[in-house]
Design goal:
Elements (H helix, E strand, L loop, with lengths): L11 H5 L1 H6 L21 H8 L7 H20 L3 H26 L4 H30 L2 H24 L5 H12 L6 H8 L1 H23 L11 H24 L1
Helix pairs in contact: 4-5, 4-11, 5-6, 6-7, 6-9, 6-11, 7-8, 8-10, 9-10, 10-11
Amino acid sequence: MTAENTRPAARSRDRRYPSDARRAPAAGARPGAPTPPSGGEPEDALERAAAVLKPRMRGWLHAGVFPLALAGGIVLITLARSAAAVAAFSVYALSACLLFGTGALYHRGTWGPRGEAVLRRLDHANIFLIIAGTYTPLAVLLLPTGQQKVLLSLVWGGAAVGMAFRVLWINAPRWLYTVCYIALGWAAVFYLPDFAQAGGIAVVALVVAGGLLYTAGATVYGLKRPDPWPRWFGFHEVFHTLTIAAFASHYAAILLGAT
Ligand SMILES: [Zn+2]
């Protein structure tokens, strides 16, 4: 149950045709008048209005993690013991840099409606990218070639469908795409015994802990609570914090598997 359900039905037109509302200035709008905040899911009108007063911490977490993710990716690549590992770590590092880099740009900057619409699509598509990007080194390090192919086809196929879905249907209901992230994230749960056999129990514990942290983050994002300090550190920042902790846990699992 989210706050959206309690909004007045009067918003439903705006809900269905947000891009029209965004493209054409409202009748009577003064040229040069400040652009209203937009570019989000229309059902998130409250959130959009709040975006004018973004919590002050919005985006700083991603901006801070970006150089760490880049450095961490380089460390992994230098540890790689095969060409396949170099490729897998590069894919992983690139997906992490895209996630945190785009996230920081999107959340810190003030973009026009067009820029915001593009960055929001990239930001959401990157979530599918980081899921497949994280599975890539785990599969390459911990699975025999046959299983690698199956798992990587599954997660990259799912990620491609998911990214197309987010880019083409940016106004999909929040619960729907949140469930898609969680489903793809846990898609490889059946491979955990294989991960344990090849990587040991610590690797699996870190993979599962990361999965649980991502799921907790997705739940906070979906429910929009807890929202501790809306002006400084709101529910979105709680979500970011949980995803960064999840990323760190998975990074540790991959590092452990690589050494
Ligand atoms: Zn965000």
